[in-house]
């Protein structure tokens, strides 16, 4: 993380909206400035609170040439005047001053949207901090965290940690460094389970995915977790309905290339592909029954049943039962 | 119109009430008594009362009958037969612009208690024209429990010159609460005969004789639907598409195409009906709340507009859901009629007229290939779907489940 440099880059651009990563990038920039000048101080300002004269004052060199790090936060909300001021400063950065611009990459006005490109052109050092949406990225993040804390983690450990803590990076980072400290560097699934129990997030989709492949135990477990963590009944019911009808639709048209079917069915190709896998083992009869089950469930969770929890469990069990009647 | 049998009463405002001689007789007697009360004379006891409940199957003209009665009450030409259909009172009451006739037409899914409380207030006033203060509630079955209770007090003891006219599909407790029902006199309308419907189509809407006869025969006794079918080619096409479904379900994939078509048509119809209106309403509200104004104080004037906009959007959404459901319901009723026809044909009851006589060939094919049990199961799937839609099941899920059942039989 630390990049020792005698002269820190005068311009930084931090792009993205993953809070933790942005925070770290700012700290890295600050630490780099501290290496050059141990007296350097940090000033944080929201762009919207700033006027061009104030910016000029902030970035003008001081009498005794102390180092200074200026962080402009929420640059995506910048107005035209301040954006122009920032860009014109970038052309002639002052000595000993580090300007860090934090930008989500979005922005409403045209000038705000073009600010990152202008900064890049001016030779700013760019740090990208996009939101981690893919599970693989999250796993990699956990591995890096553990490594940075001086430990090692195996793949099962990563899976267990993500399952138990959830997808919030701050929590994952905190849990990772704590685990490294607690388990003397080697983190595995057992170590994770010793300190973390339960699951942070179970979506209706997880329940539905297990139910339509006939995994009774898995589906029931996921359902109980989902209820426990407060997922709305309607969401689980909708996910179940969607999974069943997707499988039914895909299996109704027969086997074909997912990319061709995608256009015909109006679904993305990955969904078709997944449904084709799930459709294995289903009979037409079983799917027809399930369509009735999920339609009834939709009414049940909207007030027709006395106990929506029970209605959901029964529906899941009936879907699994319908899946397993293929032998007959 | 069966004008030969009810010639004396079916004139004036009563001519719009199709095929209901019995009801017209009672109502015109009541209107005569009411006119006598207004004139300060002695009315025949029991002929007029302060609260009426019009029941009857959809399309039998409950609200039309209520409006005709309101017009007769407001008729200013009082010879011995009120309801001339010519005077200012009759015309404005029928057009819905009479000052003493309030019509509540729920456009959303239900009638709220706030709406009813406001209505009770206006109902307590004396009529401006010195005749009757008339309150018509169409679709009284959409009153929420709270709204029904708010209305109850007023229906129980109305001011001397106030008349409540409620319309509902039936006087079953599911539709109208028993407490309200017990304070009203019920006018039960019957399904108008096809000949009467055809007659009114020809007479009032100028539809050609053959087309009118066809529309009257397939509308299931629904006057409004008959007119729609006779005058709107799109409605006719939609009906065709729906009635193709039962025999068109050959492969498993057809289930989803059919369901998709039904749901999309309903959505399209809802947006067609509502979109332009929503936009106009939004603009009118924005103008009313001071949008687009310049100068001092405009910012604070528009600040309060957010809440009102939200409110409007909520009402528009409710209306759109209702339109969608109504459109799906029409399709389901047509489908149910088809399966009923199949059952009837299978039993060989020749004297019973079919719901869709123009589809007799399809019906016969289906009756020959399906067992009576499977036709009944299909009919029940359609009816179950109607109920599911009523309790808020997502239309797509409900319709797909139904068509899957139709496919399997």
TrEMBL record, chain A:
EC numbers, comma separated: 2.7.7.7
Gene Ontology BP, a term: DNA-templated DNA replication
EC primary class: transferase
Protein's UniProt keywords contain Nucleotidyltransferase: yes
Naturally occurring in which organism (per UniProt): Solihabitans fulvus
Annotated family: Belongs to the DNA polymerase HolA subunit family.
Underlying gene: holA
InterPro entries the record matches: DNA_pol3_clamp-load_cplx_C, DNA_pol3_delta-like_C, DNA_polIII_delta, P-loop_NTPase
Catalytic activity: DNA(n) + a 2'-deoxyribonucleoside 5'-triphosphate = DNA(n+1) + diphosphate
Residue span, DNA polymerase III delta subunit-like C-terminal domain: 205-318
Gene Ontology terms: cellular component: DNA polymerase III complex
Keyword annotations of the record: DNA replication, DNA-directed DNA polymerase, Nucleotidyltransferase, Transferase
One GO MF term: DNA-directed DNA polymerase activity
Protein name: DNA-directed DNA polymerase
Pfam families: DNA_pol3_delta_C (PF21694)
From TrEMBL, chain B:
Catalytic activity: DNA(n) + a 2'-deoxyribonucleoside 5'-triphosphate = DNA(n+1) + diphosphate
Record-level GO BP terms: DNA-templated DNA replication
Start and end residues of each AAA+ ATPase domain: 48-192
Domain of life, per lineage: Bacteria
Listed EC numbers: 2.7.7.7
Protein name, UniProt field: DNA polymerase III subunit delta'
Keyword Transferase recorded: yes
RNA-binding among keywords: no
Compositionally biased intervals (Low complexity): 297-307
Record NCBIfam families: holB (TIGR00678), PRK07940.1 (NF005926)
């Amino acid at each position: 993380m630390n990049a020792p440099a005698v002269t820190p880059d005068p311009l930084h651009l931090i792009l993205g909206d993953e809070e933790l990563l942005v925070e770290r990038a700012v700290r890295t920039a600050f630490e780099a400035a501290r290496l050059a000048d141990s007296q350097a101080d940090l000033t944080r300002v929201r762009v919207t609170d700033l006027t061009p004269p104030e910016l000029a004052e902030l970035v003008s060199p001081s009498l005794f040439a102390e180092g200074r790090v200026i962080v402009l936060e929420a640059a995506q909300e910048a107005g035209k005047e301040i954006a122009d001021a920032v860009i014109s400063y970038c052309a002639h950065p002052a000595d000993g001053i580090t300007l860090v611009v934090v930008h989500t990459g979005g922005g409403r006005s045209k000038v705000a949207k073009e600010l990152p490109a202008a900064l890049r052109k001016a030779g700013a050092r760019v740090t990208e901090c996009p939101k981690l949406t893919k599970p693989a990225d999250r796993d990699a993040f956990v591995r890096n965290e553990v490594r940075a804390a001086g430990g090692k983690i195996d793949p099962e450990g990563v899976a267990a940690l993500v399952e138990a803590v959830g997808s919030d990076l701050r929590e994952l980072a905190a849990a990772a460094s704590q685990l490294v400290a607690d388990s003397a560097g080697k983190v595995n699934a057992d170590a994770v389970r010793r300190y973390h129990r339960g699951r942070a997030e179970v979506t209706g989709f997880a329940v539905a995915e297990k139910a339509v492949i006939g995994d009774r135990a898995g589906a029931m477990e996921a359902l109980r977790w989902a209820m426990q963590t407060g997922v709305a009944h309607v969401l689980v019911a909708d996910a179940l309905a969607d999974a069943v009808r997707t499988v039914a639709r895909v299996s109704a048209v027969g086997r074909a290339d997912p990319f061709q079917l995608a256009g015909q069915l109006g679904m993305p190709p990955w969904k078709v592909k997944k449904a084709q896998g799930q459709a294995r083992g289903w009979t037409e009869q079983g799917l027809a029954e399930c369509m009735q089950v999920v339609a009834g469930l939709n009414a049940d969770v909207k007030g027709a049943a006395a106990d929506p929890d029970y209605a959901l469990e029964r529906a899941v069990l009936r879907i699994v039962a319908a899946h397993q009647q293929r032998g007959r | 119109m069966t004008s030969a049998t009810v010639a004396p009463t079916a004139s004036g405002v009563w001519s719009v009430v199709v095929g209901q001689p019995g009801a017209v007789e009672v109502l015109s007697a009541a209107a005569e008594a009411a006119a006598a009360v207004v004139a300060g004379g002695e009315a025949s006891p029991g002929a007029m009362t302060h609260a009426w409940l019009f029941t009857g199957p959809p399309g039998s003209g409950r609200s039309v009958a209520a409006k005709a009665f309101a017009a007769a009450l407001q008729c200013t030409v009082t010879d011995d037969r009120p309801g001339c259909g010519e005077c200012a009172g009759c015309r404005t009451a029928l057009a819905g612009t009479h000052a003493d006739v309030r019509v509540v037409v729920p456009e959303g899914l239900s009638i709220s208690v706030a709406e009813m409380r406001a209505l009770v207030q206006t109902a307590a006033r004396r009529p401006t024209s010195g005749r009757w203060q008339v309150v018509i509630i169409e679709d009284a079955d959409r009153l929420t429990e709270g709204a029904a209770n708010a209305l109850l007090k007023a229906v129980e003891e109305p001011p001397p010159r106030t008349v409540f006219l409620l319309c509902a599909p039936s006087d079953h407790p599911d539709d109208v609460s028993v407490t309200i029902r017990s304070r009203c006199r019920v006018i039960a309308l019957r399904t108008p005969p096809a000949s009467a419907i055809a007659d009114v189509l020809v007479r009032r809407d100028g539809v050609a004789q053959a087309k009118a006869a066809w529309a009257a025969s397939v509308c299931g006794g629904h006057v409004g639907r008959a007119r729609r079918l006779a005058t709107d080619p799109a409605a006719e096409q939609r009906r065709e598409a729906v009635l193709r479904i039962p025999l068109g379900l050959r492969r498993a994939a057809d289930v989803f195409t059919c369901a998709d078509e039904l749901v999309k048509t309903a959505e399209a119809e809802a947006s067609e009906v509502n979109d332009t209106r929503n936009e106009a309403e939004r603009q009118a509200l924005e103008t009313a709340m001071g949008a687009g104004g310049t100068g001092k104080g405009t910012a604070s004037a528009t600040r309060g507009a957010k809440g009102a906009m939200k409110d409007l959007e909520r009402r528009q959404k409710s209306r759109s859901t209702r339109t969608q459901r109504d459109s799906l319901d029409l399709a389901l009723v047509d489908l149910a009629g088809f399966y009923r026809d199949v059952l009837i044909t299978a039993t060989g009851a020749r004297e019973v007229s079919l719901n869709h006589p123009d589809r007799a060939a399809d019906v016969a094919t289906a009756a020959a290939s399906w067992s009576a049990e499977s036709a009944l199961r299909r009919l029940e799937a359609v009816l179950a779907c109607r109920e599911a839609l009523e309790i808020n099941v997502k239309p797509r899920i409900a319709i797909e489940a139904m068509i899957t059942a139709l496919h399997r039989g």
